[in-house]
Design brief:
301 residues; globular; Diaminopimelate Epimerase, Chain A, domain 1; alpha+beta; 19 strands
Length: 301
Amino acid sequence: MVNAFTVNREGGNPAGVVLQADGLSFNEKLKIAQTVGYSETAFVSEDNNADVELSFFTVTGEVDFCGHATLAAFSLMFQKGILQEGDYTQRTKAGMLGVSITNEGNVVMGQKPPEFIQNLTYEAVSELIGIAPDILASTQLPVEIVSTGLPDIIVALPRGYLDQINLNADKTIAFCHQFNAVGIHAFELYEPSSYFTASCRNFAPILGIAEESATGSASGALACYLEKHGFEGKSIKDKRIEGHEQSGSNSVFNYVFEQGRAMQCSSCILATVVVSGSDKKKLDVTVGGTASFIGTKVIAL
């Protein structure tokens, strides 16, 4: 068991990690995930064409991708000496994705190029989160379904309203079924002078997740959303993040997200969007952070 996206080994989002999972059936993986009880558990298997294959289970079933469980799995393999510093490829149901490990054990995950799927009305989302439509509209930012592996509903809030969300879980489940989304990723922007770009909350009751304290896939989607709508990232003097920079003909935008504050379990998630192509429309996104080992659990099948 590993906490992902920690800050100085504190906070983060716990994930289960099962190594050498090749012989496990779907039902056995589901039972393990349910027994562990975290929002996601990652199962690591061998693969002929990738360095590893990862599958991800919530307490209700399998999902195509999970960012914090990927970070947890690769961090654990690094800590156990199974993997060293370097670049790797993982096979997931979201596709073949790159993962890099630094010599300090930080993990940076590649995600799928963003899909900007659909805009939604403020009125419809207002009923889900208990924030009035005119307050949502005051941000002048759209409510949009974005995916870099899993489709999340990205919702901007004015500063001071994030902690006032009152989620209607039943309506959210029905809404996510209707629009083929996995959950709501709400955020409020920090002042430009802050280290953090935004504070976030993520709700995925359709997956049995009331709220989670760090969401890697949704953070990638949010970074692409912010770049699309003109937020060009942070310029921060910190060894973990270099700010907006030019790399040849490419533009690189860095974002730092805080999540889990409302759960008293704050996490730090670093996301980078690289804009390239002659039309500047090709977006590549990575999400990274650190993780801490929690302990082990023995489960009888």
